[in-house]
Amino acid sequence: MKTFSCTCSATVFFENSQCVACSSELGWCPACNALRAISQDTNGQYYCGESKCGRRLTKCHNYAVEHVCNRCMLTDTMSRADRGFCDYCRFNDTIPDLRKDGNREKWGRIEIAKRRLLYTLDLLRLPYGDANDGVIPPLAFDFKDDIKSPPYNIWWDMSKEEQVYTGHANGKITINIREADHVEREKARISFGEAHRTVIGHFRHEMGHYFWDLLVLNKCEADFMATFGDHNNPDYSTALEHYYKNGPAANWRKTYISAYATMHPWEDFAESFAAYLNIVTVVDTAFNSTLIPSIDPLQSSFEDMVEQYWNLGLLFNEMNRAMGLLDLVPVVHTPKMLEKVKFIHVLLHNAAKPLLHA
Ligand SMILES: [Zn+2]
Ligand SMILES: [Zn+2]
Ligand SMILES: [Zn+2]
Ligand SMILES: [Zn+2]
Question: Which tens digits make up the pLDDT trace of 301-337?
C-alpha cells in the first residue's frame, strides 16, 4: 500500500475521507488511481483536486450516504449497472442490519478490510468481477449478523434463527460481522490457537476459494493435486468431519501453513493464497515506504519476494515484541509450504491481465 498527498501536501492514508491538516474532503479518483482531495462547485458537483486530472467525480452511495466508503466514480462514465456504487461496493449483496447498535461501526471496519483486499487484487491485475463483467463465478459479498429469535417470540414474528458462517460458495463470500467485533475476534483467536485473526485475513482466505473456482477448477486440477493433494478423495464433508473429530496431524507444522490448512486441499490452497497476499502486501508496503529497494509483485521473482518478506519479518517481529504486539510474520515457511505458495504466485502471474497502456 502507498500513502498519498493532499493538495495541502499533508500525507493522507488509504482509509481517510478527510485531511486532518486542511479539512479537505478526500476520495479515491479512478482516473488518478489514487486518493485525492476533492472539491465541490456551487452545483454540488465534485472534482478531483489533482491539477493534471480535474475529472468530475461522484461519491459512491456508501460514501455519500452511509459513510463507510471513500471511493468516487468518474461522473462521465457512470453506468446504470453501478447503481450508484463504486467499483468495490458494487459487489455487496447484503449489508448488516443498521438498526442494530454497533453494526455500522462493524460494517465500516469490514469495508476498510475489503478495500485493502481489492486494492491488492488490482495491484496483481487479477481478473475478478460479476455477471455484468462476464466473470464466472460472479463475485459477491454478504456481510451478516447471526439472527437470534427474540426471547418474547411473538406469534407474528416470522424471523428465523440464522447462524452465519464465514465462507465462500459459488463466488459469494460471506463474512459474519462478529469478526469485526474486537473482543469477539480476539476470543476466537485464542480459543482456536491462531497466531493472527483479522478481518482482512478472512477476506484473503475466502478470496483464495474464489480464485480456486476461477483459475483451477476444470483448468489445472491435475497440477493443483500434484502440489496440494487429491481434493476429491476424501471429499470435503468427510474431511471436515474428520478434522473436527480428530484435529490436525501432530507434525502439521512441517508442511502446512496452519492447522486449518490440514483439513482439505481446498483449505490448504486458501491458506496458502492468504499467505501469498500477505507477502505481496508486506513487500509492496515496504517498497512504497522506501524500506526496501524496488520490488514489483508482478515482475520480481518469488524467491526475491520471500527473502525480502523474511528480512522484514525479522525486523518487525522484534519491533512488535518491543511494543508487546503480536509478531508481524508468525510463521516460519518450510520448503513444502513455500512450494504451495509459489504455486499460487505462478498461477496468479499467469492470470494477470495485460497492462492497457505502457
Ligand atoms: Zn490537506
Ligand atoms: Zn483524479
Ligand atoms: Zn464504495
Ligand atoms: Zn476456507
Answer: 999 999 999 999 999 999 999 999 999 999 889 999 9
Distance 86 CA to ligand 3 centre (A): 4
- How many angstroms does the Cα of residue 337 sit away from the middle of ligand 4? 17
Q: Any idea how long the chain is?
A: 358
Locate 149 and state its grid cell: 429469535
Distance of CA 169 from the midpoint of ligand 4 (Å):
10
Q: Is the pLDDT of residue 153 over 70?
A: no
344-356 burial string, b = 16+ CB within 10 Å, else e? bbebbeebeeeee
Cα–chain center distance at 9? 29
Task: Give the lowest-confidence range in 248-252, 264-268, 305-309.
Answer: 248-252
User: In this model, does residue 175 exceed pLDDT 80?
Assistant: yes
Rounded to a whole number, what is the largest CA-CA distance in the chain?
Answer: 67
Q: Which helix (H) or strand (E) holds 344?
A: helix 335-351
Question: Which ligand has an atom closest to residue 7 CA?
Answer: 1
Q: What is the pTM of this model?
A: 0.94
SS3 167: strand
Cα end-to-end distance, the chain, whole Å? 21
